[in-house]
């Protein structure tokens, strides 16, 4: 059992982990940059340590500072949240070399899934269906063009080290291939220090469906159904729901088992998400995230389990606290990501919060580190809160979301709240009938109008 856990993160996800620790009787240590001295995670944790200046590279990404903070406070384990060091295999290795526990999968599993080509090869070998494409990396434009002709345009060129929607370029013809190939390589090199790229068929009408899995590290694993995250802007999710409106119980049981079996076979430990594109009744693997996802609360809502508590328990060496048969779906949940951004261009809008009021009532959960008078620093992600609603069915969840958005007050900065109010009026969103490309088109025609 851990007595003390350090949270190597900030914002709402740091609060999320502190809450789980407190319910488990575990003391929590917050780390923060000088810009976050007054942040809510610092106030809420049992202890806090300043680990550096505002720049994330010198604070939240500083491995020596975080390891030192563990040593100074006597924390035995580190929860990385999402982003920052959560998928950094080298960090995990260093944590373990210092006799500390990383709350998450092994360095090896993070390494395998962090490289998209290796991840795809591994999943394919484990029987997980993948998007048709190149076998491994593509090194020359000639090879890329030959593959484009073979697979059939449009295709997408993806950096193997890519993430966060970066390092991906679509080519609709042989002429467009040169630009797509060079740009994806350059982006991969600039953002991730790796210019290796691969090519796959570009699906034109898919939905984004991801399966939540959980492994005990000893060869057992379960799945917790899927989330539909098809409403995306620039490959970034903005609205997520569970269960997926277009997935039947039979499809869920099938793809869920494929995923759980795959992670069980590799001895995966902790929470993971296997992402698919779903088109015409078929699932196509795109990547695996070896961490807790931003949108995990929708899964928690419908399955009634605390995924962070489970992560901590598994890291402590306990078996999973639920079997596949224990996991049944109750109702429908939706999450919207509230960002401090100015519409219509989504420019970051940091600044002081003059008034904050969180919605409440039955089936409403607000995960946010905001408070009245809080100064949103300009140095980090623009996510300032997640509003999660749960209802008996999708219609009830939608009505509840609309009601809760009406109660939510975030004054002093621009936010994406007005976007969601308009989005809920769109017939496609009401019916759940859209692909991953729908939102971009809707934004162009609606926000500019
Ligand atoms: P990242 O690691 O940057 O999130 P992903 O591989 O998960 O990259 O892809 C992110 C998003 O990009 C997907 O949700 C989807 O919208 C789009 N995408 C990725 N691969 C394809 C593809 N083969 N066809 C169509 N869209 C794709």
Structure write-up:
With 449 residues, the chain is an alpha+beta fold. 35% of the residues lie in helices and 28% in strands. The protein has helices at residues 11-23, 40-44, 63-73, 89-97, 107-114, 116-125, 141-151, 174-192, 249-265, 296-303, 307-315, 394-407, 417-423, 427-431, 438-446, and strands at 4-7, 27-33, 47-52, 77-79, 101-102, 155-163, 166-171, 197-201, 207-216, 221-233, 236-242, 269-279, 282-289, 332-339, 341-342, 347-348, 351-352, 355-357, 364-368, 375-376, 383-391, 409-411. The strands form six sheets. An eight-stranded antiparallel β-sheet has the order 13-12-9-10-11-14-21-19, sandwiched between helices. Helix 4 (89-97) packs antiparallel against helix 5 and helix 7 packs across helix 8. The longest helix has 19 residues, at 174-192. Residues 131, 156, 162-165, 168, 200-203, 206, 208, 232, 235, 275, 277, 286-287, 436 line the site of adenosine-5'-diphosphate.
Enumerate how many helices there are, as a single number.
15
* Spatial order of strands in the largest sheet: 13-12-9-10-11-14-21-19
As residue ranges, the low-confidence spans are: none
Bound molecules: adenosine-5'-diphosphate
Outline type: globular
Distance between the termini: 57 Å
Any idea what the radius of gyration is? 21 Å
Q: Taking all residues together, what is the mean pLDDT?
A: 97
Largest beta-sheet characterization: 8 strands, antiparallel
The tally of strands reads 22
How much of the sequence lies in strands comes to 25-35%
Structural class computed from helices and strand pairing: alpha+beta
Proportion in helices: 25-40%
